[in-house]
Task: inverse folding
C-alpha cells in the first residue's frame, strides 16, 4: 500500500473528484432553466464531497473534528444521490448513467463510513 501524504492520495478523494467532474460534464447538457436550481445544486453537492474530504484530512489530529467532517462528506454524497434521482426523473440522464452514479456514490459513502468507524487509523 502506498504512503498517503495528502488528501489527493486517498482513493475516496480521487473517486469523489472524478465523480464531481463527470457530473459537471453531463450537467452541461441540462436545460437552461435548470441552471440556478438542479444544475447548481448537483454541482455544489458533488464538489462538496471532495472538498470536505480534504478538510477532514486536515482535521485528523482531532478525532471528533475528523469524524464530524467525514459525516458532512457522507451527507453531501447522499444529497448528490437525491439530485441524481431528480435528474433521472426529469429525463436528463439515462437509467444506465443514473445507476452508475448511484453506485459510485454508494461506494464513496461506504469508504467514508469505514473511515468514520476507524478514525485512529487515520489520525496523526
Result:
Amino acid at each position: 500500500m502506498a504512503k498517503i501524504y495528502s488528501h489527493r492520495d486517498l482513493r475516496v478523494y480521487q473517486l469523489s473528484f472524478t465523480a464531481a467532474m463527470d457530473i459537471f460534464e453531463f450537467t452541461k447538457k441540462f436545460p437552461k432553466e435548470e441552471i440556478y436550481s438542479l444544475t447548481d445544486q448537483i454541482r455544489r453537492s458533488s464538489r462538496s464531497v471532495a472538498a470536505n474530504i480534504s478538510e477532514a484530512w486536515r482535521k485528523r489530529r482531532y478525532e471528533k473534528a475528523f469524524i464530524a467532517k467525514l459525516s458532512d462528506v457522507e451527507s453531501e454524497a447522499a444529497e448528490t444521490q437525491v439530485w441524481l434521482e431528480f435528474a433521472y426523473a426529469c429525463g436528463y440522464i439515462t437509467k444506465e448513467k443514473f445507476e452508475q452514479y448511484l453506485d459510485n456514490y454508494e461506494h464513496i459513502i461506504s469508504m467514508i463510513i469505514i473511515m468514520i468507524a476507524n478514525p485512529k487509523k487515520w489520525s496523526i
In short: The mean pLDDT is 95. Residues 67 and 98 are 29 Å apart (CA to CA). The domain at 7-122 is CATH 1.20.1440.60 (de novo design (two linked rop proteins)). The longest helix spans residues 63-89.
